[in-house]
């Protein structure tokens, strides 16, 4: 049983809500808007789930602060008394930290907000509605900022309840929806959802000057006869170069080794108003036998480079043609791409991949050769 408050003999939410709101609103208004209080906010863009910030209250004198704290205690006692009455506890005041009055389990993030524990949510939607409202009040008094609420797909009935309390959609995946709530006055400083999707293409050429090409099963009819390099999207927590190697392996069965990022394209409003980054990677083949992925690929083969570049769709499209020109220049050692280098930054202490160009001055050869 989540809460005694919501048994059949308890008062309805429509009766409870307005009275509780009056109790809470008087408490928070006395705490947050005492005459003469001044509030300052400082924010900076930082890595993480929400921006780092500070929020301070400067009172003209200590008396107002004590007066506000006294008001909170009085309203808290009134709320406890009211709840004990509707719970039928015969005057016994329940502990504000008991199961009936608990705040949602959450952890503090490093930027002044909280992340709700989605694995320990109340099973009863009515209980969730009340506890969520009480939790928001609690976090407001504590000076918290952003609230992150992850609701698994099996708890989707809680989404409209959270939205009614003022939560907004942030992003969704197959198994959950993430909602956010910004407590302080003014616009939300929480970071937006991811703005880009990231794709990769593998330019694989063997020692016979043949390019590994594919024809896709599902494509625009205008490109049905086009032989193209293997492409795809990188996965979460996947490097650009490992994504390119994986996509080539999945589509053609060919094992490869990453050499360099030759170039990348940036385009906007591609899918659901998101932007797209597409990295063309030069790869060295480590095997020769092609095994086609029947789900995505119609056919794959090794095509002579001269035949590949003479395709009408390649010759007529400025983007395709430029990419091929760059790859040809790289093969002729007239161009250097970006090789990958593993580094650890003190900003986050995590290993990162930095892509940059290194050329030996005495022979003008790329380090990747």
From TrEMBL:
Question: Boundaries of each Nudix hydrolase domain copy?
Answer: 195-325
Supply the CDD domains for this chain. Answer: NUDIX_ASFGF2_Nudt6
InterPro entries in alphabetical order: NUDIX_hydrolase-like_dom_sf, Nudix_hydrolase6-like, NUDIX_hydrolase_CS, NUDIX_hydrolase_dom, Pre-Nudix
User: GO molecular-function annotation terms?
Assistant: ADP-ribose diphosphatase activity; metal ion binding; NAD binding; NADH pyrophosphatase activity
Answer whether the UniProt record assigns the keyword Nucleotide-binding to this protein: no
One Pfam family this sequence matches = NUDIX
Q: Does the keyword Secreted apply?
A: no
Record Gene3D superfamilies? 3.40.630.30, Nucleoside Triphosphate Pyrophosphohydrolase
The record's listing under PROSITE patterns reads:
NUDIX, NUDIX_BOX
Keywords, A to Z, come to: Hydrolase, Metal-binding
Q: Which family does it belong to?
A: Belongs to the Nudix hydrolase family.
Q: What is the protein name stated in its UniProt record?
A: Nudix hydrolase 6-like
Source organism per entry reads Parasponia andersonii (Sponia andersonii)
Lineage here is:
Eukaryota, Viridiplantae, Streptophyta, Embryophyta, Tracheophyta
């Amino acid at each position: 049983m989540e809460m005694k408050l919501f048994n059949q003999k308890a008062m309805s939410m429509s009766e409870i809500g307005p009275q509780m709101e009056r109790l809470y609103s008087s408490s928070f208004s006395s705490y947050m808007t005492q005459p003469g209080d001044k509030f300052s906010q400082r924010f900076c863009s930082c890595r993480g789930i929400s921006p780092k910030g500070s929020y301070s209250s400067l009172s003209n004198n200590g008396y107002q602060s004590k007066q506000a704290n006294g008001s909170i205690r009085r309203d808290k006692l009134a709320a406890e008394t009211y709840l004990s009455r509707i719970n039928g506890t015969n005057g016994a005041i329940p502990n504000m930290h008991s199961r009936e009055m608990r705040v949602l389990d959450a952890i503090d993030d490093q930027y002044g907000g909280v992340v709700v524990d989605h694995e320990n949510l109340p099973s009863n939607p009515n209980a969730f509605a009340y506890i969520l409202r009480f939790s928001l009040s609690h976090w407001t008094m504590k000076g918290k900022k952003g609230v992150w609420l992850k609701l698994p797909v099996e708890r989707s009935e809680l989404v409209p309840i959270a939205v009614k309390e003022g939560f907004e959609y942030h992003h969704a995946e197959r198994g959950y929806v993430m909602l956010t709530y910004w407590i302080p006055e003014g616009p939300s400083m929480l970071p937006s959802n991811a703005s880009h999707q990231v794709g990769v293409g593998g330019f694989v050429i063997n020692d016979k000057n043949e390019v590994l090409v594919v024809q896709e099963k599902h494509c625009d009819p205008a490109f049905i006869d086009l032989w193209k390099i293997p492409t795809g999207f990188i996965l979460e927590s996947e490097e650009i170069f490992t994504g390119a190697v994986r996509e080539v392996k999945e589509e053609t069965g060919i094992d490869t080794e990453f050499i360099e990022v030759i170039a990348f394209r940036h385009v906007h409003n591609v899918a659901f108003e998101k932007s797209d980054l597409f990295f063309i990677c030069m790869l060295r083949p480590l095997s020769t036998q092609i095994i086609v992925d029947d789900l995505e690929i119609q056919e794959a083969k090794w095509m002579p480079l001269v035949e590949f570049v003479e395709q009408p769709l390649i010759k007529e499209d400025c983007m395709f043609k430029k990419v091929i020109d760059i790859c040809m220049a790289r093969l002729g050692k007239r161009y250097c791409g970006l090789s990958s280098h593993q580094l650890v930054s003190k900003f986050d202490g995590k290993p990162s991949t930095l892509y940059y160009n290194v050329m030996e001055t005495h022979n003008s050869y790329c380090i990747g050769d």
